[in-house]
């Protein structure tokens, strides 16, 4: 049984994320930033006199360390940024999304 059922279509809606949604979004952005930063970290740390095993170590460290550092920064930004985000959303009544938006309601044993 599906959890959601489609109610009707709208041309715009206003939305505000709760803490878990804001936290998940911050983690996703942090991981993507960490993955995108891997080539720059690798290039910045490789020197012309680096030996073969050092290249491998730097590559593995960058591939593992990049997303982990991104996760840490995502957690930090979620914890520090949620309350200013909530305050701004209260002042602006949420973010307005336009386009073809479908309203969903929970499907309660129908």
3D structure, described in words:
- With 110 residues, the protein is of the alpha+beta class.
- It has two domains: 1-16 and 95-110, no CATH class; 17-93, no CATH class.
- The protein is 62% helix and 22% strand.
- It contains two helices and two strands; from the N terminus they run βααβ.
- The chain has helices at 19-45, 52-92, and strands at residues 4-15, 95-106.
- Strands 1-2 form a two-stranded antiparallel ribbon.
- Helix 1 packs antiparallel against helix 2.
- The chain starts with a strand and ends with a strand.
- The model has no long low-confidence stretch (mean pLDDT 81).
- β-sheet strand percentage: 15-25%
Give Rg in angstroms. 21 Å
- Form type: elongated
Q: Level of helix content?
A: 55-70%
Helix vs. strand class: alpha+beta
What's the multimeric state? single chain
Helix and strand run: EHHE
What is the count of β-strands? 2
Poorly predicted residue ranges: none
Distance between the termini: 10 Å
Total of DSSP H or I helical runs spanning 4+ residues:
2
* Major β-sheet profile: 2 strands, antiparallel
Average predicted local confidence, pLDDT: 81
Biggest sheet: strand arrangement: 1-2
Number of domains: 2
Sum up the structure in keywords:
two-stranded antiparallel sheet; 110 residues; 2 domains; 62% helix; elongated; alpha+beta; single chain
Concise synopsis of the structure shown:
The protein has helices at residues 19-45, 52-92; strands at 4-15, 95-106.
